[in-house]
Write a structure and sequence with these properties.
The protein is of the alpha/beta class. It contains 15 helices and 8 strands. It starts with 6 loop residues before the first helix and ends with a helix. The N terminus is likely disordered.
């Protein structure tokens, strides 16, 4: 995985990269919250195929949104890429996207993984799942999200903080399915079950299970899969002890989130932006991202690559990403009321 530079450094580099091109230069300016070499390889391929140079500014989604808001109509951004439907919704609410209608996009991205009005489109899926200590927990103990709040796991759960966009989206899905009262009761159960105050990222939760700090942890699927496939050799023994469960929401399948993209409201290179969006949602690009970042394609007709195929047999919940993304403010209120810090 490529290490992201501090935002200020990236911004300085990006300002140079995104300066006004010569009339003959073909460019597309991308603000991205994804920092993977696999994505860089796709940008390079896009340039080879189209002659359009991809300029990048990298940062956290909220930082990039703030930057675009500050830049206003003078923003050089053509495309914003984020790693969560909730982050895309926040950008949409800030008025940073323009609707895009494209037969290619609509044929490759199912309606459940795009905004109904075309503000953003997903290009990869990830599941919010449970890592568990196989010596202490049975798969049936964690086959439903509701079980994470049960007394069975009192003091035995590790999880990230409430401001994690992934947790906000999960709780948003629970609110959409259950309503705010039941979702808050679940969140209170999760807080009661915490083995320690929330800290670290998803990998840290998985490692804490292996270290015996907790028996179960909430994580995105691709973090575990990358650890299991040897991104860091020290993590391989972790995934031999810790296994992955794909819990169900009301018996309808596992909560699914997306990485996706939208065209900037003031995109100066609209045609090139659309070409890049269609390229990144193509069958080849979806397969490349899934294979190299342990995610799943969004297109239902694409088979999961070998690197994730063993974990692709789960049932996915049919809830649309837009449905839980818009629940962000409610999710934050529910988690705060429950004492989830």
């Amino acid at each position: 995985m490529k290490i992201a530079l501090p935002l200020l450094t990236v911004a300085i580099l990006g300002l140079a990269a995104c300066s006004a091109p010569s009339p003959a230069e073909k460019v597309v300016n991308v603000y991205t919250a994804r920092h993977y070499d696999s994505d860089l390889a796709l940008y390079e391929q896009f340039t080879r195929e189209t002659g359009v140079k991809v300029n990048r500014i990298e940062g956290k989604a909220d930082e990039l949104v703030a930057r675009m808001k500050a830049e206003g109509a003078n923003s050089p951004a053509d495309v914003l890429i984020a790693a969560d439907a909730g982050a895309l919704w926040r950008a949409q609410q800030a008025g940073l996207f323009q609707p895009v209608k494209s037969a290619a996009l609509e044929s490759r991205v199912p309606a459940s993984f795009r905004d109904p009005d075309g503000a953003w489109y997903g290009f990869s899926r990830r599941a919010r799942v449970v890592a568990y200590d196989a010596a202490k927990v049975k798969p049936e103990d964690v086959d439903d999200y509701a079980e994470l709040a049960s007394p069975r796991f009192r003091g035995k759960l590790c999880v990230r903080s409430s401001d994690s966009i992934y947790n906000l989206s999960l709780v948003g899905a629970l609110i959409e399915a259950w309503g705010p009262q039941r979702a808050e009761a679940w969140a209170r159960g999760v807080v009661a079950n915490m083995a320690r105050p929330p800290e670290g990222g998803d990998r840290d939760q998985i490692r804490a299970v292996a270290a015996g700090v907790c028996e179960v942890a909430i994580t995105n699927s691709y973090y575990y899969l990358r650890m299991a496939t040897g991104e860091d050799a020290a993590d391989r023994p972790v995934t031999e002890k810790v296994k992955l469960a794909f819990p169900s929401l009301d018996g309808k399948g596992t909560h699914m989130n997306i990485a996706g993209l939208g065209m900037a409201q003031h995109a100066p290179n609209r045609e090139n932006a659309l070409r890049l969006m269609e390229f990144l949602t193509s069958a080849a690009a979806q397969t490349h991202i899934a294979a190299n970042n342990s995610e799943f394609p969004v297109s239902p007709d694409l088979e999961a690559p070998e690197s994730v195929k063993a974990y692709a047999g789960f049932a996915a919940h049919p809830m649309g990403a837009a449905a839980f993304a818009r629940r962000q403010p409610e999710a934050q209120a529910v988690m705060s009321a429950a004492g989830w810090r």
